[in-house]
Design a protein that fits this description.
Shape: globular
CATH superfamily: Gcn5-related N-acetyltransferase (GNAT)
Largest sheet: 7 strands, mixed
Distance between the termini: 42 Å
Order of helices and strands: EHHHHEEHHEHEHEE
CATH architecture: 3-Layer(aba) Sandwich
Length: 207
């Protein structure tokens, strides 16, 4: 893993990202749009249009990229999606981020890492661990007050890769995240606060 490097995605790396997603399976179909689109839009959107949406997002991304790409040597092998938490529409209506908490859902200083994809043939090599750690550094460099994730606890069980797109608890713990809440049997909300910055309290009750 000494040759693993992680870089922000840009237009020049578009085909590398598609290599990570592959041509079949959940990642190829989703194009990382389930993380960002309202569900009613996502389910009715054709795959090709999802792909176009992601491409436009990457081309127009300023000042931060919408995700990070991992390379093992010259081979693209992994991806994670991150950014200000308020950009991710599905999080607004999910109980996972907000259980037992009251925070401002519009606080753009709180970031989230919401999706991981590791290319078939390269899994179980610690790539998602490296991506989680890189996400922390990237958020900090872009002046985030905090970064969150909402991973799954595997507890040694065999979990389908599609379910693990949110990441595994172990990868987040290794990157320095701490548990905030445990809203369901297998799902956690985890977080790192940078410096003394704290999230703003919610002005209205959570949905």
């Amino acid at each position: 893993m000494d040759s693993l490097r992680i870089v922000p995605v840009d237009e020049a790396r578009w085909m590398d990202l598609q290599t990570v997603f592959g041509k079949r399976g959940g990642a190829a179909a989703c194009q990382c749009q389930r993380a960002i689109l309202p569900m009613r839009e996502y389910w009715h959107m054709p795959r090709d249009l999802r792909r176009d949406f992601l491409h436009e997002e990457i081309v127009g991304a300023r000042p931060a990229a919408p995700g990070l790409l991992a390379y093992l040597g010259d081979d693209p092998v992994g991806w994670c999606r991150l950014g200000p938490r308020c950009q991710f529409a599905p999080l607004r209506n999910s109980p996972v981020p907000w259980a037992e908490r009251r925070e401002d859902k519009e606080d753009a200083k709180v970031w989230a890492v919401v999706c991981f994809v590791v290319r078939a043939g390269y899994r179980r090599r610690g790539i998602s661990y490296a991506l989680a750690a890189a996400a922390v550094d990237y958020a900090r460099r872009h002046d985030a007050a905090a970064i969150e994730g909402y991973p799954m606890a595997t507890r040694g069980e065999e979990i389908t890769w599609g379910e693990l797109h949110v990441g595994a608890v172990g990868a987040f713990r290794a990157a320095g995240f701490n548990e905030v809440t445990h809203p369901s049997k297998r799902r956690y909300a985890m977080r790192i606060d940078f410096g003394d910055a704290a999230a703003k309290p919610m002005s209205t009750p959570s949905a």
